[in-house]
Amino acid sequence: MLRPDGSPIRVLVVDDEEALAALLSSALKYEGWEIHTAGSGMSALRLAREVDPDVILLDVMLPDFDGFEVLRRLRREGSTVPVLFLTARDAVEDRVTGLMAGGDDYVVKPYSLEEVVARITALVRRAGIAELAAPEATVLTVGDLELNEDSHEVRRGGEEIQLSATEYGLLHFLVVNERKVLSKAQILDRVWGYDFGGRSTVVELYISYLRRKIDQGRPPMIHTLRGAGYILKPGEFS
Questions:
Q1: Which residues, 6+ apart, have CB-to-CB distance to 174 below 8 Å?
Q2: Can you tell me which residues the record assigns to a coiled coil (predicted)?
């Protein structure tokens, strides 16, 4: 798996446990990826700005400030890099905190290296970072909303909209099911793609993110059907 320019996927591993960081780095280098490591929140922020990684593996417990704060700062700077949280804490509240900070996935220690590699690969593909083999771009259109499946560019009314990997995955699922009601359970299963273990409130959270980016100041396209789920359809001008 390579970037569109043929260079290796860039991964930033953030963990203050040197042995774990080294083990993760070795496993990821075996995949042919370019690996950078950081052992604190400050060094993680510095490397994220310098290296511009394609994906970040981010430990929650760091010596200066936690991984949630690292990601909050990156998101405030406008970064949409996919983030996989690594943590020893398995509480639902921690998972929700990570997602609310802008995280895309969550793995609890102890984890298998195969699982971490699989989840990183899924994030990279979902974000459209890896080179795709399709000869022509496929653009999905709903009303004035356009979604390019190759480049993952999203536009509404000709204006480009920046989305995180998870936001794009959610919007894509809504678009390919235009005018169909999708339940929270269906969305969790399709967008997160496995036994996520979180609460359905994460769907409400990401729907609110999309509405702010897609619908704000425009005729709404994303609608809630109380007790049933969500539906996307062309915005109607009054």
A1: 182, 210, 222, 230, 231, 232
A2: none
